[in-house]
Amino acid sequence: MSVHRSPSSASPRNPSTAARPALVPTNSVTTPEGITVRARIDPTLTVNDVVKQLCVNLKLKTPPSDHALRDEADELVTNENMRKKIKAKVNLKLVNAPAKEAREIIEALITRDDKTLRLTLFSLQKYIREPEFARHFVERGGLDDLVEVIHAAHGNTLAYALIAMQNLMDLDYGWSNLDSSFTLKVVQILSSPQSLINVCRPATAILKKLVEADPTNAPIQGASSSTGSPQLPHGSVHRYGFSFVFEQMRKEETFLQTVVNRLGSADTAMVQHSMMLINSLLSHVGESYWDEFVAETERLHVRKAVARLMATQTVDDLTSCILDFQANIIRVTHRKKTTQIDSLSHETTLKYIWSNSKLEEDYDEESNIVKWRKLGFTSEDIEAEFRDVGVLGLDCLKSFVKREPDFPKLALEQLSRAEQRRCPIGRASNEVVELLSEHWAIFAPGYSTSTTFQPFFMDFERVHSLATQCFIRMWGESNAATDDFTRVAALVRSQVKVALRTENARAWHEVEHDFLECEYRSVRERQMREIEMEDDLLSKVPIRNLRAKIYKESYEFVREQRIHCLFQGAWFVNAYSHSSPIPKDTSRRPSKPWRFLRLDNSLKHLYFVDSPMKFPVRSGLDDLPERIEVAAITEIATGTCIPPPNVLRENSDLPQVIPSGPSPLSFSLLSAHDGSMSDLIAPDQSRWADWTDGLNMLRRDSGHVASKETAGFVQALTEIGLKIKLLDLSGEKVEIPSGLSAGPPPPNTDFFFSDL
Question: Theoretical Cys-Cys bridge with 138: which of 174, 245, 251, 583, CB 3.0 to 4.6 Å?
Answer without folding.
Answer: 174
